Amino acid sequence: MNRTVNHKPDYEKELRRAGARITRPRRTILQILAQTDDHPDAMEIYQRASAIDSTISLSTVYRTMKLLEEMGAIHRHAFEGGPSRFEQASGEHHDHLIDLDTGEVIEFHSDRIEQLQAEIARSLGYEIVHHRLELYGRKRRKS
Amino acid sequence: MNRTVNHKPDYEKELRRAGARITRPRRTILQILAQTDDHPDAMEIYQRASAIDSTISLSTVYRTMKLLEEMGAIHRHAFEGGPSRFEQASGEHHDHLIDLDTGEVIEFHSDRIEQLQAEIARSLGYEIVHHRLELYGRKRRKS
DNA sequence: CGCCAGATGACAACCAGTTGCAAAGATTTC
DNA sequence: GAAATCTTTGCAACTGGTTGTCATCTGGCG
């Protein structure tokens, strides 16, 4: 088990390669993404983008996130009781621990768990396409 | 790892104990729940209930499910890309494997995984309140 | 520079779910 | 068992997150 670390890829290049145009709104949104290390939702991205370019619309944020998602550049996570939150797809796969008090998202990875999941699926006659593992918890009171 | 098995508790008694009234709509919904072993969503429950008593409203289904959920009698699962689905809370905790082709939900449980989750959370300074583990997969082609 | 498919902003529509409200129903009290 | 009381219901309107529509705009090639 270990925390994962992110490094940002060049989304602009990726977008271009996907045949998409580099527009002002997109550049702005990419800039937000490059500056962030947390897991913002669409509204947060919209607000941060608005501060840079007030003409950006929320629809464009959603459209851009969807585009990036389809390109595999970002991941969308629908954590319990809230809007979807996005994260860079860079780095290896990981799961999430959500702090119930702050909403903070901590990434972790466990090969053992992944392996057990695959075993279970196999024993039930299935092949895993993807999975979702989310731990919801609170900081332990260090007494 | 093993499949879990359900047996139905007496929801009517539980409702009464919680100080709620046993009304016709509620009785109908409970009857549906008693008859089902799958993981229906609100609309499915509504439709099955309508067949018995066509005057039932969808709001009442939602309200009743929420009530039962608060009583701990049922669990609500928000699987990917669809409405919440409900299941009896009877039996021990388990996780879910969702068949991507059919939507079928298979229950499983792994003490090893649970244990690893707790270890991970602890090592990150957290205490798990609850978790969500869902495997999304397809039946293996038995070649 | 001019073109035009692709992208945008504004806003309507959508979906799952919730809520306000007046009427109907379940329990309790006598 | 009827009245009083308090809960629940059906309906319609509303919500929050997200997607669709469409007239207008613009990036990037020629």
Could you characterize what this model shows?
2 copies of one chain form a homodimer. The first copy, chain A, is α+β, with helices and mostly antiparallel strands and 143 residues long. Chain A has 2 domains: 11-88, Orthogonal Bundle (Arc Repressor Mutant, subunit A); 95-137, Dna Ligase, domain 1 (2-Layer Sandwich). The first copy, chain A, is built from 5 helices and 5 strands. In chain A, the strands form 2 sheets. A 3-stranded mixed beta sheet of chain A has the order 4-3-5. Chain A has a two-stranded antiparallel sheet with strand order 1-2. In chain A, a hairpin with a 5-residue loop joins strand 3 and strand 4 (105-108). In chain A, helix 2 packs across helix 3 (42-52) and helix 3 (42-52) packs across helix 4. The two termini of chain A are 25 Å apart. Residues 2-7 of chain A have low confidence and may be disordered. Strand 5 of chain A pairs antiparallel with strand 5 of chain B, so a sheet runs across the interface. The first copy, chain A, binds a DNA duplex (30 and 30 nucleotides) through residues 19-26, 41-43, 55-60, 62-63, 66, 83-84.
